[in-house]
Amino acid sequence: MASSIRVRATSNGDITEVQALIQHPMDTGLVKDPKGELIPAHYIQQLKFEWNGKDVFVADWGTAVSKDPYVKFSFKGAKKGDELKISWTDNKGGSDTTTAKIA
Amino acid sequence: MTTTTGPVATRRLILQGAASVALLGLGNLPFTATSARAAANDKYPEEAFKQKNEADAIKALYGKTAEPSDKVKLDAPEIAENGGVVPVSVTTTLDKVSSISFLVAENPYALAASYKIAEGTIPAIANRLKMAKSTKLVAIVEADGKLYSATKEVKVTVGGCGG
Amino acid sequence: MKTRSALLLGSLSAALVALALTAPRVVAADKVDPVADAKAFQNFFFQKFPDVKHEDFVNGPYSMNADLKRQWQEKEEFPPYEFALEAGKEMFATPFKNGKTYADCFPNGGIGVRQNYPYFDTKEGKVITLELALNRCREANGEAPYSYVKDEMASLTAYMAYTSRGKPMDIKIPDDPRALEAFENGKRYFYTRRGQMNFSCASCHVQSPGERIRAEILAPALGIMNAMPIYRSEWSGMGTTSRRFVTCNSQTRAVPLEPQADEYRDVEYFLSYVANGLPISGPGARP
Amino acid sequence: MKRTLALAMLLALGLVATARAATEADYKAAYTAAEAASKEAAGLRNQWTVTVSMLAAARKAADSGDFDRAIAAAREAEALARASIFQATSEKEAWKAMEIR
Asked: What is the pLDDT of residue B27?
């Protein structure tokens, strides 16, 4: 199945800009479904970006992050062709990981 | 839309509620245990995300209070086009930044997101948050051990003519 | 009791005023002239919003409000319809059980043709929209049709729209009285008030584009079809043209017609034709 | 004397019965009128959502035996249906007033 993580990592000069969009419902546990029953909380809790064995960026998320969450940041030191490892885990123990080459 | 009212539905609701809370708790116990072995500051700030209001969340997360600073630039719309997807971003000229967090004061749980910034990572983040209603939005930056903050009011209402 | 009589009184007086207004012009407007209608329609918006670039109208509310446009541009960097687009591309490539694919049902393999839909089928004598053509293609190849308001149809139309991005809308009205009647029927539907709110499409999208309806900014009617299908944050999901028509109806408390009803297909035909020349911008992201 | 008393009692009972039955009959009449108007509105493809929900409210009230509320709801539904019929017929020409020329 295609990964749930879409990443775009582009480097210019010493700075690499990273954008990620993740396919995930991010249910808060406070919303009712059409039958009136509470949809249980189901949200990504931690998202990690690893380069060269080091966590360059770690996101701790609560239930207020939008559905199909998006995040953008940039970091120094990497160059074209380097690999970036992205992984997330959610409150139901679900997880996914992918790697992306810096363009 | 038939809603199964009466005792059966409420019992199932309570059971479901209890189950998901237990799961939440359970789900985290081993999680925190394993991550304890990983870098200390990697632990998911479970407590902080449970706090209702903004001050308690900041205390639970950082254990100190923040002072407003114009070196923290918080960008968010004046009127959100939709409460479910509000683009929010922050940049700062402070250096030695180790953490950035976003808090939505009027949400059921104030802390929305918290980021750990490694050495060499630029202290600027954009993300999309949910806001329950018109609210104060707070960005916290931890730089060199001290906390700085910026706030912005965001108006949120539903759209359309109601039906 | 009080509100009901007030409502009756209100609509009575509105009707009287309207009748007085139309009386002189009824004689003039009996011949259907789509070319003149399209010119008048476009000029109305170009004059009402002189500083909006013509091709910008297809961006709906974002052509009307700078703050909203900034939020939109930020979202467009990594748009929420990204998943629907990829799903559509994949579906387009996966053959049906009989080995055929959507490409066999559409001119040019379905790539870059969205700007010609809806078209008027002279054999059948009715307007065929992209969504209807897709379901007919599925049925012709022994597959079950998709719901007109759910994600599969939105993913397919999102991909086809994406392949036509930037191409000017190019809707044709053949020299066939039934085509002119379909165009006129669409125009009539567009301007007819309905629902307890007593609104027509024009009440919002012609009389008050750029104004707020609670949190949302109303889109101009010109180019409103060019961005379909749209990912709406309010639905936190994709929406086809059919879904948009159905939800607009129920918001004004009018019972919606079945998706792809004659009136819906004809009003899409009318709105697309009068936007001829403006670029396709679908799939769109909207509040 | 006893006979007249019995007769009077019988009459009173009959009256009460008819009074209660009358409201159910009134409800049925009001509901059929409302339903007819709503069908006509649907025929003009201009039904209002509030008409449909008011008819449902009338049925619900009737099922629970509250005929006064049921009749009021049925009458309201009919009025709404009539208003939507009026809207459809008057808009046949009125729409031209808004047309961009």
From this structure: 42
